[in-house]
Structures are given as C-alpha cells and as structure tokens.
Amino acid sequence: MMPLASSAMVFRYSNSFITLESTLFHQDKVVPSEVGISSTLTHCLMDSTYAVNVFKVDIAQLKSAEVNKKEEGYYSLWLDSLTFCGETYRNVKFVVMEMQQRFNGKVPNVVLDNSILRHRAWHIDLQRHTFTSCSPDQHYGKIRLKCSMGKGMEDGSIFLKAKVGGRKVQMLFSLNKGLHILPHGEYDLQPQTNIPCPLALATLPLYKNVTTQIGDFNFVSDYKLGFPDEGKVGTLFLDALEGKSFVLNYPKKVIEILE
Questions:
Q1: The model's pTM
Q2: Does the residue 132 lie in any domain?
C-alpha cells in the first residue's frame, strides 16, 4: 500500500543532509529557505550570521540557550511560524549559534529537528528523492523495523536493535548520510584499514562488508568504530536504506520498508 499523503516534496542532498524548501516567518519577514532535517537533534538550529543578515536579529538582545549543559555561544530565537511539507508550525524555537565555521560549511543555515518531525509519519523515497507527510494510522510494508524513542536530552531520537557482525548492538537512526558507526568495543571483525580523524589526533578501524540484521531486514555495509567516550550506542545512517522507499512512523515507533 502506498502512503496516504499530501503532495510529495522533492529533496536534494546538501553534504550529508536531506534539504527541502520551507518558508520562515518572523515579525515582518517572510523568508523562503532551504532547510536541512535531522532525526538526531533535539533543537532546531539556525546559523548566527544567517539570523543577522536575513532576519536582522540583534544577537545581543537574544536570551542564552542551554545546549548539552552549556550556554556560551548559544541563543534562543522564536520564529512566529514556518511551513514544512504542507503544514504550518507556530512558535518554533531555534537555537542560534555560529555553525558554518564550526562545521566547515557542511551544515545548512537552518536545520529542523525532532520537534517538527516526531508527531507525524513520513514517507521517504530515496529513489525518487521525495519526502511526504502521511497517515500514521496505516500499515505500509511487510518489513517493519520496531523502534524505541529517546527521552530527555534524546527526546524524539530513534533507536534500533541490530545484530552487526553477529553482535547485538543498539543503533541511533539518522536521516543524514554517512559512514555507520559501531559502539566502541571488541568485535570479531577484521579491520580493512584505519580512518584518520585529524580533530582527535587518532585513527579509527574501518570494517568493510559487514553483515547486518535489523528484524527481517538484512544488508551488508561498512562501519567505523566509535570512540570510547561516544557511549554504548552506534549510529546507523540513511545509507542503510539507499535506493529504498520507507515510512518513518514516529507515533507508531516503526520504520516500514515498502516493497
């Protein structure tokens, strides 16, 4: 069954992000903008230079925002509303921060988070590059990947139980593209090479063609090993579903792969 949905929005990739058209409203400003989406963030983000140049925001007049228990360099900005995939969201909070230098220009100026995504179901077609809001009350595919949802600082984040190289692990599901990350630990796998990480002055093992199982979904992919301080959860990126069409159903806590 195809999703019961409004008209599909065509997306493109900007670095690792899915980006779509949105319209942002703040005071007398109406700003069409290409926005990135993230299923791992708990704050909508806006680049500080973009906020100043486009919305004429005075950063000094904004209140500080707390991110990861830190306030320095983070500010709160409430937009009157924004439109996204045919829906209007009102009184949307953004964390304003310097993004482009910090992330080497690899992050869109505006990124929408789980506060926008988590109340709906979304049909994402990675072959046609379409992103659509759809009914959370329908079943769409025979392959159903059960999820759990984070709480607190991980509010709305999506977690999957997987078996990677024969070992059971928990994975955070990301709508970004990237090289999958295994939780730090010992694996019965042979690394093919090491990946340099200049910022950490270290290298990480790269495991290629690793068999992965999530419920009834099986695939083979490459992984790098996470750092010890990154916790006991790995990250599974959008590349795991490359070329597929699927429904990410937040209310029902399930990812359904369409056949």
A1: 0.90
A2: no
